[in-house]
């Protein structure tokens, strides 16, 4: 199974969220009271709730829940968003009575409701209890061979679901720029006789940090500016440095342009 993350913003920003937005665990709780199967942070669309509210007189079957996911590509890169369809089957003891035709109707109707703004993930997961999921693998394989409507369906245990579909915050940000190299470039001891060069390099990195902020890469901005603030504080506190009037003026201009340099918090 490829690395996936759930991204609640996909769901909370969906047009159906005001109607049927719920926590996935709360959806599970309706049928499996007292059983904690899912991360309580996962937002979803409760499709049964949607049908009850919007289609009371003409209810059709849908999948149980929809969550928002992205593929983790590498380092800080994630795919475009997807909607993942889920069938919660923690009460099932076997899968032999699953109907491919019925499922196809569920998926088709769910897709109509969701619209086409966000692509569907290409696998529909049936979530089983841990002791059942392993036994269903061969059953699903045999059923898919005989029913094309089940081709995209896969069983998964509750433990595996929570292991493979992680919150996006679990992926620690990996900076694009090496802060050790930035510090090496801005080692003030190398510029005691050429403060202008030090100030020029400092200004370059401040501008580069701001470029990341303007591109909404706040993580990279924070990584760079955090190191620059420390270096700037050390520069200002270094009693060995003798600044000319022009040096002091240039330093004050940098502090005006990038006031965050003076804030070590």
Please characterize this protein's 3D structure.
- The chain is of the alpha/beta class.
- It has two domains: 4-170, no CATH class; 179-262, no CATH class.
- 47% of the residues lie in helices and 17% in strands.
- Strands 1, 2, 3, 4, 5, 6, 7, 8, 9 and 10 form a ten-stranded mixed β-sheet that branches.
- Strand 6 (82-88), helix 5 (100-114) and strand 7 form a beta-alpha-beta unit.
- Helix 9 runs antiparallel to helix 10 (218-237) and helix 9 (195-214) runs parallel beside helix 11 (245-257).
Which terms would index this structure?
single chain, 265 residues, alpha/beta, 2 domains, ten-stranded mixed sheet, 11 helices
Main sheet summary: 10 strands, mixed
Number of strands: 10
Average of pLDDT: 89
The run of helices and strands is EHHEHEHEEEHEEHEHEHHHH
Total helical segments = 11
Please give the domain count: 2
Structural category: alpha/beta
Alpha carbon gyration radius: 27 Å
Distance between the termini: 42 Å
Q: Poorly predicted ranges (pLDDT <50, ≥5 residues)?
A: none
Provide the β-strand percentage band. 15-25%
